[in-house]
Amino acid sequence: MSADHHDHPPYQAHHFDSMEQQNQSSMMGMWLFMAQEIMFFGGLFAAYMAYRFSYPAAWVAGASTLDVNLGFINTLVLICSSFTVILMVMAARKGSDKGIMGWLVATMVLGAAFLGIKYVEYTGKFDHHLFPGKNFDTHYVMGKMAAHPEKYAEFKGMGIDWVHELVGHESHDHESGDKHHGSEDDHAKEGAHGDAGDHGDHGGHALPADATAPLGIALYFGLYFAMTGTHALHMVIGIGIGIWLLVKTKRGAWCSEYHPYIEYFGLYWHFVDIVWIFLFPLLYLI
Known about the structure:
Layout: H1 19-54, H2 56-63, H3 68-93, H4 97-127, H5 139-147, H6 162-176, H7 184-193, H8 217-250, H9 260-285
């Protein structure tokens, strides 16, 4: 047997000269995969920025329908999952299968919790017909706008000029002292309009008959579902990979010198978490 075919660890592929070369090659492949993921999400973020500056009023109106509290909780959940991933990788480097399995399960549970909260958010959007398509309905969005018309008073010529009527009406009521002591006819009109409460929270304000949603509102929700849905799909894939790693770990596939897929899973999970760190402020806060 020649020197080129000396004994090597069983987990070293025959076409590599050393474990160092094998690890570097596989890590390069992982980083190339991450690069194409960055380009994929980069396109979505570029579309978001382009349309946000084109339809600012629609972005403000769309964000008003999101639950910031649920988004914040999901952010905390993913931050915690990143911590458990770090502990999992540390356990792998120590050769602790028990530690790998424990922290991997914790990571998947947190990932499932994230998806559960996202399901609750999606359910609310579908209930209010905010998914772009033939059933898309903007009444709920306009109700949110009517509750706080001052947020949209600066946007002119974007299909929401009716908010100026509400702002002016509110100012007039405040000056006259009739905001909470209006005539019976005024209350009757508001009560009649309250029958449409299922279509949005109007905050006690009656929408003008010709009220329309801001231009580009369907684009906002289209990008919202595209970006958060793609992110959620990556979470589902990550949990699937985690189950595979769990089975491999239980069979004793790793040791302190060889646990590449644990490391790669950690990189993938951190990337998905970082994507959400950008999605949360862009969609919920700004």
